[in-house]
Amino acid sequence: MSWKTFLNKLLCRPCVFCEIVQGNTLDRVIFQDKDMLAFYDIQPAAETHILIIPVAHIESVKTIQAPDYDLLLKMKAKAFDLLKEHGHQPENCRLGFHIPPFNTVDHLHLHVLGGEFKTALKSAKYETGKKWYMDLSQLLSSLEQKMRP
């Protein structure tokens, strides 16, 4: 458990993304089903910046388990659909996660980024291979290795 999660629990603060799942802030939600929810980022880094979160609370890429592999594939498929709806070709876009302690909310959230970045600094925040950011394909590969006998 991260220090942010511990502090929030200690102070009885609910997870902001769990609040969105519960329907307390529906204004930005653009998709929802029984497994996941998608909404616009409140501080977009790129022309299109959508977050996709699991309905179930999964803390981060560090706590995700092999059984969640199919959920990640479903999130990827929805990300591609949303990028196409917003006029982007998914293969030219970024899909990934911030790695604790560099994440801002301790609820797994896939960043779906399409189009031009607003600044070079915002682009750097979402660069694959940095210690603070993991591409979705990297996480899927990691889980695939864990599932092998």
- Structural class comes to alpha+beta
Low confidence ranges:
none
Q: Averaging pLDDT over every residue, what do you get?
A: 90
Distance between the termini: 28 Å
Give the SSE string.
HHEEEHEEHEH
Number of strands: 6
Strand content bin: 15-25%
3D shape: globular
> Residue share in helices?
25-40%
- What kind of assembly state do the chains in view correspond to? single chain
Query: What's the helix count?
Result: 5
How are the strands of the largest sheet arranged? 1-2-3-5-4-6
Sheet with most strands: 6 strands, antiparallel
Rg over C-alpha atoms, rounded to the nearest angstrom = 15 Å
How would you describe this structure in keywords?
5 helices, globular, single chain, alpha+beta
How is this structure best described in words?
It is a single chain. With 149 residues, the chain is of the alpha+beta class. The protein is built from five helices and six strands, in the order ααβββαββαβα. The chain has a six-stranded antiparallel sheet. The longest helix is centred in the middle third of the chain and has 17 residues, at 69-85. The protein is globular and about 45 Å long.
